[in-house]
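notes to self, project folder thing:

trying the whole complex as one job this time. last attempt i did each chain seperately and stitching them together was a nightmare. two parts in total, labels are on each line so i dont mix them up again. if this works i'll redo the older ones the same way
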Amino acid sequence: MKRLKEIKAITAFILAVALISGVLNGCGSGDSSQTTAARNTGNESGTETEPASTANPDAQIVVDLVAEPVSTDPTHVTDINSMRILYLMYDRLVDWDTDGFNMIPSLAESWEMSDDALSYTFHLRKDAKFHDGSAVNAEAVVFSFERQLDENHEFAGTGPFPNAATYFANVTSVEALDDYTVKFTLNSPKSAFLAYLTTLTASIVSPDTIAANASDTSMCDAGSGVYSLDHWTKGVELALVRNDNYWGEKAKNGSVVFVPVTEGLVRATNLQTGQADIVADVDPDSIAAVEASGAKVEQQSTQHLWYVGLNCQKAPFDNELVRQAVNYAIDKEAIVNDILKGTGVVATQPLAPVTMGYDETIKGYDYDPEKAKELLAEAGYPDGFTVTYYVPESGSGMQSPVAMSTAIQGYLSDVGITCNMVKLEWGTFLNQISADSLDGIGKMDWDMFSNSLMNTSGDTDVYLPRFMSIDGIPKPNRMGYINEEATDLMREAAVETDSSKREELYKEANRLCVENPPVIYVDWGNQIAGVASGIGGFQLHPSQMMHLEKVTK
Amino acid sequence: MGKYLLKRIIGAFFVVIGISIIVFVAIRLAPGDPAEIMLGSYAQQDEVEKLREQMGLNRPIVMQYLFWLKDIVHLDFGTSITYHRPVLDVIVERLIPTIYLGAAALIIAVPFGLLFGSLSAIYRNKWVDKLLMSISFLGISIPVFWLGMISIIVFSLYLHIFPSSGMYSPGQTGFLNMLSHIVLPSFTLSLIPMSVIARMMKNSMLEVLNQDYIKTAQAKGCNGFQKIWRHAMRNSFVPIVTVLGVEMGYVIGGALVVENVFSWPGIGSLLLNAINTRDYPLIICGCCLLAVMYAVINLLMDIMYGIIDPRIKYE
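result (full assembly):
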């Protein structure tokens, strides 16, 4: 009897376990891969062998980004995740083509610049409509800019607009000449003006939608782009759907869902398990595993310089020879190959290959510790010196800051320089290296720091003068680097409207900043994306935006 | 009872005020401010100043706090600097997933914790006890971050049983879909509370089993299951309730790491991001809300004592 009872109990237990695992398994397989697959290949007839010809025009593309967007109002955002999404929802007057930094018409069909380079007239296309149905016209363009630039504008309260002053401080007026013609007037020539019009800040928004959402524009869709906003479940996903009334070439897929996934390992796993079609920023350490699973890893060199800033206002780095010496002391090749696993390109100069002014004849500083020691001795530091080295623990575009900085610390100790590395959280780091007055130099009590600088607008003017000219930011520039000759060249280039002359000026300034470096040029980080097999048409762009409308599945 | 409750509620009120002051001051003592972080490392100093002014950050701290209190009285909890929206909206939509996750973790942790604890006590020093206590020891010691990663690699990447991240599959909703997504994070989150409850339960039950009344019951022929269930179990619960209150706080406030690993859209990942961007209104409101929840949970737990053990009276 007792025996029978025991058997009964054991059988019941086994059944219960089987039942529970059955239920859980059911739920597990009921998720991503199967259902989405069924949905996305709705009209196919079992021909999996030729993904290109069976591409579904209504496919849903799942994209894992590193973080959630902060707002759907393009004037609010400063982070790459938001920008990548809003780029598809909004149009600008002009844009870059899909291959690089070649300007193409967008909402403006054509434009003219006045001879004095102080005014630009844009002729808008007449067939563009906002997602809310209203027409994209001159009034909307004026509204999009005045909202940000005129403090007394009716909707100036829909800000703050963090980038407006950076790009458009010199715009004095934006007027509608007729329904489809707009004139911008500047108070000083700015050769980068058109490039600035490609930034998210210059997106054209629907006045109707902004007015209707005036109390909170951070979740509305005021765009006219190739996709419109479908839904945004906070923290979960933001979904865009194809805009079937788009004026240009329509999207080749039905919808794009952006999912925030913070951990690199989890993004890579999502790609391998089919939970994501495209993932941003694959960690260098995950690349091998992702490729082994059949997915592709796309890489492209960017204008994202990773550098070590040196305090040019304070000994020992106020000495040009010392700054050259530390450039010779670092084996950048080894950092790129071993730490970054080849996901970067050794930087030879401040300007990246895709940027105007890049000079391929400049070979930069080789790894030459002997030369570094000689230069240090010549500068009066035969026994080296001790400095403090600020390193952010993380930060947008910082690649692997701690590992890279530790390697740099090691290379510098080989030539007799002792770096006391201080690792800081990003916000603390920014505060530590920032200057607190307009003339900056007063508070520069640091020695060296690791940082990176991305050129989002594609133009040299936002980039090179920002950190190597006396007109840089914060004034004179982050490194306190005074190079009158280079500054004059950059000032001249900023107002030069002939682009070949402009390029020569930047080339010369660029060369001067290599000969007398304010920083250690380390590498240009690649942008990296993982793409699942069966996905076609994905292409990276040097601006780091993603042309997802070309993607097929 | 009523007087006791009133006293506790007033106490909790001051706790929350105190926490708001501490958080308000502490976050402003941290270097860096939202304007600086928003504009990045290459911002013009006057632009930063202008943005600071728009955000009202150039007032003295005391004034900022008083303005904040004034707004709270008017039920205006402020606007998130990062999200440009009322903080309460931002927090509430993220609080719900955290509550789901916390509840799921407790649903795993409490029954299993009690079961393992009781079994360990009953089979003291036998292999069952040793095995379960080793597991609970591991459960307390394993870093949650690591466990989360390993469970993703094993259960998502290799076994394909559960999805690796998120709350729903992209483009989908529904309870069943969420259920498959909640298994890994809730299991990961439940391990610490489960282990703590198991260890507590074991000690508590051992103590009860040594009481005279259990021996009396035994002498009267009440043995085995009946002895444990009717006489020992309920009496072992009182200290567990205390632990439960603490662990509930843990699964809500401490879910941060788990939420980050599994991209769970909860309040932990929201607050972590808020700290990184120095989103002052969001940080303060989030912390105060967690403090309120913690206070409420503890109050409920105190009331629970009375229900479990009628001998406990409130003065």
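what i see at first glance: Confidence is low (pLDDT under 50) at residues 17-51, 436-440 of chain A.
need to look closer tmrw
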